[in-house]
Amino acid sequence: MDKIKRNRDYIALFMAVFAAIVFILIATFSYKFAPNNPLATDYDNLLKAPCSQYFFGTDQLGRDIFSRILYGGRTSLLIAFLVTAIISVTGIVIGAVSGFCGGVVDGILMRISDMLMAFPGSIFTIALVSFMGTGLVNLIIAMSLTGWTYYARLSRSMVLSIKNNNYIEQARLGGANPIKVLNCYILPVIIPPLLVYISQDIGSKLLTIAGLSLLGLGSQPPTPEWGYMLSEGKEYMNSAPWMLLFPGIIILINVIVFNLLGDALQNVLNPKKSAI
Amino acid sequence: MEQIKEISTRMASLVVILFGLSILTFSLTYILPSDPVEQLVESMGAGHDEEVMSRMREKYGLDKPFVEQYMVWLNGIFHGDFGLSVQYGQPVAKVLARKLPNTVILAVTSFIFMIAVSFPLGIISAVYKNKIADYIIRFMSFIGVSIPGFWVGMMLIYLFSVKLHLLPVGGSGSFEKLIMPTLTLGLGMSAYYIRRIRAVMLEQMGENYIIGCLSRGVKKSAIIFKHILPNSLLSIVTMLGMSFGGLLGGTMIVETVFSYNGIGKTAVDAISKRDYQVIQGYVLWMGFIYVMVNLFVDLSYQWFDPRIRRKGRKGGN
Lengths: 276, 317
Fold this sequence. Notes:
Chain A is an all-alpha fold.
């Protein structure tokens, strides 16, 4: 019974990884799949309903929504990946150093993260972008500056819980310097469980990016981006509901894939915790 | 004695955090890509005149060092002076205070809706684990945490306003206008809480004291409502507090989608109009509320959990 469940977990993980890779590939090579130029306008076919020429219909400028979604995936997924990579690496390093060194270093780093965490949700990110000026680069900077705190907290608490284990002591006695201890004995232990959060974070970053673009803080027109497409779609929902429908569904599917990946990783990596 | 010590340490760290919060908020003006004085002078038609600009800096105290400017600003904050909104030509505090009631109403209704939905479903899902009801609830809540909230809002508008003509598209001030924003915010949070409640309840169910209760023949409903639920509630309370804190800040996106006249939408409008004083005031307000709610939640543990009342807080966080 247990073995069957274990196998099922691995199959689920494999499928989730496969789906994620497919989505990433589609986004990366969107220029090959897209049937039309996402920026090309077609004034004979404004707000056209989905048909064989335009699978998902066209928008107010006659641009092909299907192609725009494909290209938009490039923007959204790329940024989500980039931001998650930056914040997870810096966060884990900061947290590990903080927990490992303790003392003043720990105090300072954790107070900084306390202050950033004192703002709920993405409020401070939004404030940063609005002061720096809107745009994708500033969006990435702002999300990176504020996003690392969660990882720092998690990895710090994990380091604290394993720091006093005998095998770490032994490594130290064996003459390993602190950097080697951190690199070879601590990080390899704490990173796998964090992969679960990283995967789910990609999904939540996709939502944040779409949300911020919806507010006009992310990508600027005419660059196709899912969140921005939705904000355009809202204006035309009366006559062209497909402008609203498809970008939303695509965001949903992508977030689902990364959440599933997180759940599948959880099942494989921490079977005890997920058994309940 | 233990309690007084606990509260005083909390207060001390609170002061530090609020201090840091104000520094972060104040520093925002320093990352502005353009010099506000230059813009102001040029918009007055004076061109790029160094002397005029330095006079202006002197007038607004912008030639002073960072610390001094910060102290002046902070002093203003303590006196309720958050600066002047360019957009409204009114003090920022006044602008935000006017929008606050709308946001509070929406926060309360969505919070109540969320509790009314997530607690029963979460409990059912945990009690009937791996039964049909559980699968359905789990599936729905999984979709719920993955779906973009603003998109749900837009689809609601499409369905109830555009197609069925049942509800107004947006705005604020009446009960009908409150329904869709409440649904949007409430459903999103519910999905999250259903998952959490199920997880913590299942965790409790595996504890020895539950097996003890079962073996003594305590009724199942009594176990669930008198033992598992109160114990599970403890870890939920923190999240509830944070969610409510977040709601009080007005969720910018939902308020914008429904043109709901709360402080979230005010902040978004301020961003597009480059009304930096309002953004600053809003950010400071958000941080303050959040910190206070967290403090309140931490202190409420003493009331919720008798173990902590007796021994002092176990473990740090």
